[in-house]
Specification:
Elements lengths: L14 E4 L5 E5 L2 E2 L9 H9 L3 H13 L7 H13 L3 H13 L7 H13 L3 H13 L7 H12 L4 H13 L7 H12 L4 H14 L2 H16 L3 H13 L7 H13 L3 H13 L7 H20 L24 E2 L11
Helix pairs in contact: 1-2, 2-3, 3-4, 4-5, 5-6, 6-7, 7-8, 8-9, 9-10, 10-11, 11-12, 12-13, 13-14, 14-15
């Protein structure tokens, strides 16, 4: 996960920070049914998996993919996901699709990604429905179609799945496959944000920020704060920018420096540049050109890396960009934690 994100099971295609206007920055969102606590009973799970228990097969696949209780092994992850997928487990079908989309443990194959996502989506599984929407939005393994993307996003969004709600909001915000409708975009962002979904919180904040009036700027800062508290570097950067410029909040260079630092420590080049400028100008801290130059150098290195991989490029520092989960590499479904029955001798 880059970010994804972002949301709920590991994420095939739910991800990212980007905008169709200007640069695109995608952060895969991880869809999880369960936390990633160590599987203390891995040997028991593996034994149950070998006896064709699909829940255990899913757990085994997840353990091998995430390196939980066992060394990472994508070939084994794909093997166990396929066993569970063949047994009709939609989470395993979605995760197997993700491995095909990313070429992990199997040869990269968009058609297989479509096949397995479609199987889970046909059973009404929201992460897979969202992935199918993303496949149509990006034209991976299927003809590119924003209209079909919206159709699949809505199926999952209507079930309350936050990544799909965020993607649907972005489609309305950008007028992709539908008439541009800011109110509809905000409505879907808010539904997802109320689930605590960080990407939606960032997008909702940006939607309010663009309106520019005092009330909406304050509302934007509120949502940036929620996402920043969850560790979103983009939200941390935008919150810092608000404090630095006094937009929606009382100007406070100390707070701006604090939030820039949090985003900069996560490698966001714009924040690294900004914190370098704060040290250079002595804003919120005594002037220190040595530290400023160190941060400028880090930003330059990060930007060079980003230039080598457009999928990791970041939005301009002075321009708010929507976070999205429909423009990514893959969405995965993390294994649902299940209580397996004790083995009978």
């Amino acid at each position: 996960m880059r970010i994804c994100v972002w949301g709920l099971v590991l994420s095939l295609f739910v991800s990212g920070v980007s905008s169709l206007v200007g640069q695109s920055h995608c952060i895969p969102v991880v869809a999880r049914d369960a936390d990633s606590k160590p599987l203390a009973n891995f040997s028991h799970i593996l034994q149950e998996a070998q006896e064709n228990n699909p829940d255990a097969q899913l757990q085994a696949g997840w353990a091998f993919e995430a390196g939980v209780g066992v060394a990472v092994d994508y070939v084994q992850a794909a093997f166990w996901y396929r066993r569970a997928a063949d047994n009709g487990n939609p989470a395993a079908q979605t995760n197997l699709a993700t491995l095909y989309a990313r070429g992990l443990g199997v040869a990269r194959d968009d058609m297989q990604a479509v096949k397995w996502n479609m199987r889970a989506a046909a059973d009404g599984y929201p992460p897979a429905q969202t992935n199918v929407g993303l496949l149509y939005a990006r034209g991976r393994g299927v003809p590119k179609s924003d209209a079909d993307a919206i159709l699949w996003y809505r199926k999952a969004a209507d079930k309350g799945y936050a990544p799909a709600q965020t993607n649907l909001g972005l489609m309305y915000a950008e007028g992709r496959g539908t008439l541009q409708d800011e109110r509809a975009a905000i409505r879907w962002y808010r539904l997802a944000a109320e689930h605590g979904y960080a990407l939606a919180e960032v997008n909702l904040g940006m939607a309010y920020f663009r309106r520019g009036n005092a009330h909406d700027l304050a509302e934007a800062v509120k949502w940036f704060g929620k996402a920043a508290a969850q560790g979103s570097p983009l939200a941390q950067h935008q919150l810092a920018l608000a404090y630095e410029r006094g937009l929606g909040v009382t100007q406070d260079y100390g707070m701006a420096l604090r939030w820039y630092a949090k985003a900069a420590e996560q490698g966001l080049p714009e924040a690294q540049n900004a914190i370098g400028l704060m040290y250079s100008l002595g804003r919120g801290t005594p002037r220190n050109q040595v530290l400023a130059d160190e941060w400028f150098a880090k930003a330059a290195a990060a930007e060079e890396t980003s230039a080598e991989d457009s999928s990791t490029s970041s939005p301009p520092a002075t321009q708010l960009q929507p976070a999205r989960s429909d423009e990514t590499d893959e969405t995965k479904v993390g294994a649902a934690r299940v209580e397996l029955p004790s083995r009978r001798n």
